[in-house]
Design brief:
Number of strands: 0
Number of domains: 2
Radius of gyration: 38 Å
Oligomer: single chain
Helix content: over 70%
Distance between the termini: 116 Å
Amino acid sequence: MEQLLGGDIPEGLRCDIKSLSTLSGVSRATLYRTYPHLKQEFEQRLGRLRKARGEPDPRIAQIDRLKEEVAQLRRRVSQMNQELAVREEFRATALSRLAAQHEEIISLRRQLQDVTTRGLRVAPSR
């Protein structure tokens, strides 16, 4: 019990009743029938330990931390995708406006060139 609750959990085991029975060398059924007071004590101490320090099994604690980290990263990716969509929309609008302005500039240059060309033709014919 002390080994499991201390966090020294052998590979392939967990901090639970099944592992307690395995390390004790008795079957789970024997633990339940013959040593219910030990099972109860283990569960109570495990509950207090989890409240005080969190999960005593470092592997499970690491899994929980990694799951939370994955959840945070997924939230960040979602937020970044939303920001990217807004920026892509802005980019498309800006490019559309630039294209329209470019066409207007070309049209105005042609008009200016036409006026200038007509003005030069009219002057020599006097």
